[in-house]
Amino acid sequence: MVATPPVEPFSRPTEVLPHPLPRPVQHAPVQHAPVQHAPVQHAPVLSAAAPNMLGPAEPEPGGSRSRASRFAPWLVPLVLTGAVVIGTALIANNRGSTDQVAEPQREPVPGRTMITLGPPSDAVPPPPPLSVAPSGVTRAAGQPVPSAASAPRSVTPKRTPSTPAAAATTTPGKTTVVTGKPNTAGANLALGRPASASSQEDGRWPASMAVDGDAATRWSSEFSDPQWLLVDLGDVWAVSTVNLTWERSHATTYRVEVSVDGTTWTTVYTTTSGVEGDTLISAGKVPGRYVKVVGTARSNGYGYSLYEIRVS
C-alpha cells in the first residue's frame, strides 16, 4: 500500500484591515400607542325661552347653533372697560390701607446704632461748659470764681529744729541757765547708780554689772544691732569725762549721749573705729543726769560687752 501523507487542516489567511468597520446599528421598531382624545364638552346653549340678546339665532346643522353665532364683538370693549375700572378701584383701596398701617418697629441689629430723631421729653440737659478761671481752677460756667481768701493754699509744715542738750530752761519773762553741779572731788558719778540696757545675754550679765566698780564683771547684750546702756546719775552734773572699759567683744561703731531730762540728748562722742580696753572721752562739762552708750556695730558675732563705765 502507498502511504498517504497526513492532510493538514485548511487555514485561511487573516486579512488585516487598516481600520475596523463599524457595525450597523439596528433600531427596534417604535411602537406608538393609539391616542384617545376626550370628547369636547361644549357650553350649554341658551334655551328658546330666554330672550336672545345676540340677535336672531341661526340654526346649526343638526339642530344646534354655531360658535360664531354666539360671539358678539361689542362685548369686548365693555368687558375691558369694566376690568380697568375695577382694577383702578382696587389699587386706590390698597394704597389707602397701606398708608394707614403703622410702620413696624425694627429690631436692633448687633453692631449697628439706631438713631431716633427728636429728643425724648424727659431728656437730661447737657452740663454747662467748663471754663478756666485766671487762677487755674476749672469751674462750670455761671459759677463765681473763688476769692483768694477761700482758695486752697499749699502749706509747708514747719520743722522744729533739734534742740541740743538742755543747758537752759526758758519761762515767760525769765531764762534759767542749767550748768550742772560741779564734781570737784572727781568721783565716779556712775558707781552704784541705777542702770538699764536694751538687752542682756542669757540674763547672766545685766547692766548693773557695768557700774558695780568690779573690773571682772561686765554687761553683755544679745547678739544683734543696735544695743544701748543707760546710767542715771541721780542729779544734773557738769559731766567732764566718760571712761569706757570694753571687753574683747567690743563696739566698733558707737556714740555717747548726755541728757538732762532723758528726752533731749546731746552727743558728746562718736566713732567708727572702737577698740578693746579703756577709752577716755572728754565731755566738756556738759550738764546732764543721764549718760547713754549706743552701739551700732560689733567687733565679732557676739554681743556688746562692757566691763565698766565711769563718769566724772
From TrEMBL:
<dbReference type="InterPro" id="IPR000421">
    <property type="entry name" value="FA58C"/>
</dbReference>
<protein>
    <submittedName>
        <fullName>F5/8 type C domain-containing protein</fullName>
    </submittedName>
</protein>
<feature type="region of interest" description="Disordered">
    <location>
        <begin position="1"/>
        <end position="38"/>
    </location>
</feature>
<dbReference type="Pfam" id="PF00754">
    <property type="entry name" value="F5_F8_type_C"/>
</dbReference>
<feature type="region of interest" description="Disordered">
    <location>
        <begin position="96"/>
        <end position="206"/>
    </location>
</feature>
<feature type="domain" description="F5/8 type C">
    <location>
        <begin position="179"/>
        <end position="312"/>
    </location>
</feature>
<feature type="compositionally biased region" description="Pro residues">
    <location>
        <begin position="122"/>
        <end position="131"/>
    </location>
</feature>
<dbReference type="InterPro" id="IPR051941">
    <property type="entry name" value="BG_Antigen-Binding_Lectin"/>
</dbReference>
<dbReference type="InterPro" id="IPR008979">
    <property type="entry name" value="Galactose-bd-like_sf"/>
</dbReference>
<feature type="compositionally biased region" description="Low complexity">
    <location>
        <begin position="157"/>
        <end position="182"/>
    </location>
</feature>
